[in-house]
Amino acid sequence: MFGSKTKHKRTPAGTRTLPAAVVRRPGLRGWRGRGQGEAVYVTAADEWRGTSVQVCGLWPFVGGSGTPIVGVPIGVHTDTGAPFGGDPISWFMHGMINNPSMFVLGLPHYGKSTLVRHIVLGLSGRGINPLILGDLKPDYVDLIRALGGQVISLGPGRGHLNVLDPGEATGAAVRLLASAEEHRAKANQATDQAAAAQLLAAAVKAEKLAEQLMADSHNRRLNMITALITIVRNAKPSAHEESLIDRALHILDERLDRVPLIGDLIEVIKDAPNELRAIALDRGDMGRYLDATDQLRQSLYSLDGSGRFSDMFSKPTDQPMDLTKPVVFDLSGISDTQRDIQAASLLACWSTGFATVQVAHTLADAGLEPRRNYFVVMDELWRALRSGEGMVDRVDSLTRLNRTEGVGQAMITHTMSDLEALPTESERMKARGFVERSGMVVCGALPGGEMEKLNKAVTLSRAEQARLISWADPGSWTDVGGSRKRVRPGLGKFLFKVGGRPGVPVALKLTSVEESLHDTNKRWHDEGEN
To answer: Is the pLDDT of residue 49 over 80?
Structure first.
């Protein structure tokens, strides 16, 4: 044989065996020797890129990376059937996203609220309290009741929420100051200099936290009053009107030994103290002061039981939030025709919820309460954003600190058109920022016209866009159970997107226990049906 040598082996008996061939092989650069084809330089192999459908024939034994299963079990991958799990808090804690928030988009009746309820239920099992800050349908009331939580009803004739109530902030500030005094007393009695220094530092920290808490409470009340006036007028109050409200709130806190109401705020403005007259620039003329405050008082009267808001915001709060339990604000008593009342109620609930969470974290920072984390759901976002000029800024200020405040967050709306419908480009850009800043974006069925708008905030491949559009197809009509029912291909299907990574298409799977809690069509059932 060419290029080979043979060797003969003897057996113990001295007989010969068949020769074993030793094959000569080329080296890494080919056959060595003149004219043998040895390569001095080996060029890199050509690389080609293709989809798994195109190149699978070259190497059919490929296996893609597994879908994430960190957090709440959601369902299965629509293509592979692999299990999928995730939620914004779990993914944030594992370093998979930079912000514990999610933005959910999708057409109505394709399962957005069902998905969020499923996540709420899973997180509550981990000890994370859900806060549903405004439930208009209601979608979450049955779930929160089943979890043993608190249901707070709000609406004309159904409940009251005093927007001037500092809530738990006043009581928390008193506890912090008492803790500071206790630390100082212990420091004075301490014999160890290092221990005394630590106690004094703790006292200073508690005093600073109390001061910050009251300042934040004041700003929240100011922002809430100006937001309600914006909805009443469909225009922002002027700069000098905001200054008047700001000073009037300080005067109220100094005069009253109880929680103020909007009626008290009106009375302070009517009394015309010198501080307010100076802000109004009346130059000693009471007529100028009245002219400067007439429009402001008219707007406040409409919030004091004399306008379309009835007494929702003008009476003491019926049920303060209990942050040791799951909480839902039930706004289902407000008709869909009362869009401005719905928007005002949502803003009031969001403001109250975030303020109470801040109090809870401040007390935990001072060691006066155990540390708790919360998952805040802000549904029907578009209603608040469209309610008046400046609403985007107010929602933006509420939602920016969720990571530092230890709060997970879900914001829900139908389409990007809800955000693009805002009147100015600056407001549209800020609204798109809600989507861009979210740790994960979850998209359900969407029409084709939404793709260009969505791509401004989230990068979607053509295949992903086609998938979302296909999910919005109305589907075929089929005879199920003797009745004509429409089978929608996108029902319960969602694309989970994180940054520029490929999205994970998931089909939501519910347990039998959940199905009764996710029925939002109860009023369409016959009385005899279960």
So the answer is: no
